[in-house]
Design brief:
The complex is a heterodimer of chains A (124) and B (255). Chain A has 124 residues and is mainly α. Helix content of chain A is 81%, strand content 0%. In chain B, strand 3 and strand 4 form a beta hairpin. Classes of the chains: A mainly alpha (124), B alpha+beta (255).
């Protein structure tokens, strides 16, 4: 997921948008407004108790739930070694904080590609 | 509404619900854990690391503040005060292991029977409490209870604990101007209100053990608590956060 490959995908996305009919393009932009995620919000939700909120934000419910349950068990059993679980979750999750720009950018490209495909299917 | 739009809306609502419910649950649990485990642990460690000079300053300021706002001069005779100081010293010499600067102070507090320990070992006993605890063993019980607070460092731990909470809230809410008053306010608040029930039971336990060592039984502890219960039937305790007298008597009996 390097910068140039993301740029290529964004370029392909732009071409996809321009290929839509004016009506579909209008719908696309309306959906984009709702679906596009903000990397800063993702980063804040990541370090907020490292409880998987950033996964929920991107719609990854299962991953978020795993994160949340691990954090919950870690907190409940904190005094009897649960802190190890919390440290583990933080070690796994925290690096994503520093890659939040790329992660969210990639997510937005994927989601909007899906929207273009659906709109194209509806058109045809 | 079109199918994509309605699906997106439902998806957004679901994500928001997950984020909010998870955040609330984690915050509640983390807050509870910090309050019940983190705060006592941190308070104990920080209080133990505080230099002795701070203890002395906190004691001095707290007593001055209480003298200005609550206390009046004791009406007990000098002979009575001297006798009680001798009793106090005898309890220290034989039973106390702490390195605090112990001293006994007498005050009148609106005729209320009360006793309290300050951080560095100053014990304040009111005239009404001296009159209520007519037997020497009962006075020993009251003084040993307060010495128990000093031995377990309850006062400084309570000050540190309230200061952590106060500082945390102040920093979170953005008003740092109140930060300078944290220690003194924390001291007064903790002396007046924040002895925890656990701390009271620990001090009772300490006093009972010492009484048994001195007199062979802890009957005096139960009898002074019974007198206080009779004297103040509407109050659950010497201070509002104490357990009820009945609970404390039962606890001593069960030990």
């Amino acid at each position: 997921m390097d910068d140039s490959s993301l740029r290529e995908q964004e370029e392909a996305l732009r071409e996809g948008i321009s290929s839509l009919s004016p009506e579909a393009r209008k719908r696309y932009y309306q959906l984009e407004e709702q679906l596009v995620k903000d990397p800063d919000t993702y980063a804040v939700l990541n370090y907020f108790f490292a409880a998987g909120l950033h996964h929920f934000y991107l719609g990854k419910i299962v991953r978020g739930l795993i994160n949340f349950i691990l954090m919950l068990v870690g907190l409940i059993t904190f005094a009897i070694g649960g802190w190890v679980l919390i440290v583990l979750v933080i070690v796994i999750e925290l690096p994503q904080l520093f890659k939040s720009q790329k992660i969210v950018r990639k997510h937005n490209i994927d989601v909007m590609e899906g929207v273009i495909n659906e709109l194209n299917r509806e058109q045809s | 509404m079109n199918s994509i739009e309605s699906r997106v809306k439902a998806q957004q609502q679901k994500q928001l619900l997950w984020i909010c419910s998870t955040a609330l649950l984690i915050m509640a649990l983390a807050g509870y854990k910090f309050y019940t485990h983190g705060l006592p642990y941190l308070s104990e460690k920080i209080a133990a690391a505080i230099p002795a000079s701070i203890y002395t300053t906190v004691d001095k300021n707290t007593l001055e503040s209480l003298d200005d706002s609550e206390f009046e001069q004791s009406q007990l005779s000098e002979t009575k005060q001297q006798a009680l100081r001798s009793l106090f010293l005898s309890l220290l010499n034989e039973e106390t292991t702490s390195e605090r600067q112990f001293k006994l102070e007498f005050r009148n507090w609106d005729g209320k029977a009360n006793a309290m320990a300050l951080a560095d070992g100053t014990i304040v006993i009111t005239d009404a409490m001296v009159n209520l605890a007519s037997e020497q063993q009962e006075l020993s019980a009251v003084l040993l209870h307060e010495l128990g607070h000093v031995e377990h460092n309850h006062v400084m731990e309570s000050i540190v604990s309230s200061s952590i909470v106060f500082a945390g809230l102040t920093l979170t809410l953005g008003d740092v101007s109140a930060l300078a008053d944290v220690i003194l306010q924390g001291a007064v608040v903790s002396i007046n209100q924040s002895y925890s029930r656990q701390a009271e039971l620990e001090a009772d336990h300490y006093a009972s053990e010492q009484l048994i060592a001195l007199y062979g039984n802890a009957q005096a502890m139960q009898s002074i608590l019974a007198k206080l219960a009779e004297e103040y039937p509407d109050e659950t305790s010497w201070l509002s956060t104490h357990p009820s007298f009945e609970d404390r008597i039962k606890k001593i009996e069960s030990e």
